[in-house]
Amino acid sequence: MAAHGGRVGPSGARQAGWWKRALTPERIAPVVAAAFLLAVWEIYVRTQLPSFVATPSGIVMAIPATLAAPSFWFDAGESLGSIVMGVAIGTVAGILVGVAMGRVREIDWFLSTYIRALYALPLIALVPLVILWVGYQPEARLTIVVISAFLPVAVTTADGTRAIPKDYLDVGRMFGAKTHHVWFGIALPTALPHIVAGIELGFARGITNAIAVEVLASVKGMGMSVFEKSGQLNENASLVYVLALAIFAVTIRTLMIRSRRWIAPWYSR
Amino acid sequence: MTTAERTDTFWRRVRQFRSARAGWIRVACYASSIVLLLGVWQALGRSFGVLFVPFTTTMSQLWEMLHGGPLLPALGVSAKLYGVTLAIDIVVGVAVGLVLARMKLIGAALEPYVYVLYATPTIALVPFISVMFGFEFWSRVLVAVVISIFPILLGTLEGARSLPRQHLDVAAIFGSNERQLWRDVILPYVTPYAMTGIKQSIALAMVGTLVAEFFLNPDGVAAVLLQGTTIIDSAWVLAVTVLVAALAVVLVGIGELIERYLVRWRRTAVG
Q: Which ipTM was obtained for this model?
């Protein structure tokens, strides 16, 4: 605590107080910017727009009531459960297909036309087709999330397992590695950082497409509620849902980045 | 010859064949995969009935819709939205990326929120945007831009931030003024980074266009797609989906070509 004054540090050198070191302009700036933006939003809506439009203060006030409603937790369970499950299924399928494509040229040539065409296609364009085939059901959402995760994981796994250093293969051969050892013992671990990047992309696309299916097919869930609440002019509650979705998305992203650092500390993007 | 030896020679022959005839095998794989898909599609379509029509029916439907049908005007509407969106993405994305990178304080102030907004499923903001700005053209553009701008913005930001100090020092030693510095040092250095982002945004702008058209009073190609689901006409929906897929492949291909051209002098470094 002696450092408070800034001059009486043990070394006697010019030592800034902890608060001075913590409050660098770079740290203060985001807070100031947030306060400014929120104030502009609040004032603009209050003075220019009708009262049902969401304001920061209104959103904060709406949080307790929204979280207290059982329907919020039902929606969250439905949407997030289906997203997590869909990404899990898509990831497993994507890894299997991706390793095969990465390790066997012929399989790559055979499948790449479709995988890459579908990968380029905005999957939201597939939503009407999936709704038509699967029906106006929660399964339509699951299907779209599975596809959303499968494609990026398959592509990144294929890229990652194709480009393994020749040395690894040579060492593996010398120790008598069989094909499945090469696939799942050498290629797959080498490609892990790529695969995690693919899963990350799969989650991002899966969340967006899940919301799209919910709205277009009237499937109950968080995305549906965002639009429904807004339609009932309950804008503040609608944005509480958006906030919850954003927190989910940011959490997933952070987890993915963490896990990539943990799995492959040597790898940086 | 033992069985083991026999299988060994067999696999060696296979391996020799695979490397000696790689070109032919490649063509054969591509050709057979396309033939197989169309064949399976045709066969399944014949047995499934209404929900999954054969390939030939889909194509004739597409032909019909393009000639005097609703598809061509709808494509025009979507193309306009797409073009405006992508133009704004590139101009605003590069500009904001450069500003955030070169002006330290503004960058520090706004960067966390840029990342949060990037991670947020922006499709969920559509109702909010429509309440604030309405359902008209510029509101659609805003939705599409919010969905597709971030790869360009963040790519430019990362590129400009990684500009080595020495480049600036050398430019200063040779007495370059501010304009020369930007034209000869900063912009060429940032181009590959921005281009990687632009390539992603070319694809994302399609997503943005479709989202804006699906969710702000249906319009354009998305409206045609929705019409197909409402009347439960799978030929209709399949035809439009195939067309969108073809367009997506072409656009992404163009993006890759531009990137390869702009980044040709840096190919080894980018890898």
A: 0.81
